[in-house]
């Protein structure tokens, strides 16, 4: 409760007081014994333990609400849903297209790869999405503080280098990140559903 109170009582737009709490050191860990390339290193982030507690607390509160917020087409990271269901549906669709007797002049299957999805999340857009979903201003403010106050420093020979602060993106392996990414990416799913309902897109 003390950690939650600390974040909640901060001024609305001031993140300077929590930047040290959200400081992260990046360390390169070798993947193989005999290194030959920089690509054989795996970067890991060393986060402050106090921040991990807060992020876990917020993620625990957010998780039960996701089934009511995220569209039924999205199955990953949502309680009571399995991503394997979507894989099974995809197999059934392609099996149907392959075996059906009447064929259209054109058929299209679209596979989208969300390349560097975590890195490209715009904080302002995330804030708007949360507001539209009905989250209270205090919650939105707390989430934005958590993701915008982070600063990184490369740890070289045991000593941290210069700090840098991102202007967008979510930190991977942060307990909050998968759920926040869901809120953002579900906007695309909702837009597709909107187009289908208005007969602008037509599926099988």
TrEMBL record:
<dbReference type="InterPro" id="IPR000477">
    <property type="entry name" value="RT_dom"/>
</dbReference>
<dbReference type="Pfam" id="PF00078">
    <property type="entry name" value="RVT_1"/>
</dbReference>
<feature type="domain" description="Reverse transcriptase">
    <location>
        <begin position="40"/>
        <end position="193"/>
    </location>
</feature>
<dbReference type="InterPro" id="IPR043502">
    <property type="entry name" value="DNA/RNA_pol_sf"/>
</dbReference>
<dbReference type="InterPro" id="IPR052343">
    <property type="entry name" value="Retrotransposon-Effector_Assoc"/>
</dbReference>
<protein>
    <recommendedName>
        <fullName>Reverse transcriptase domain-containing protein</fullName>
    </recommendedName>
</protein>
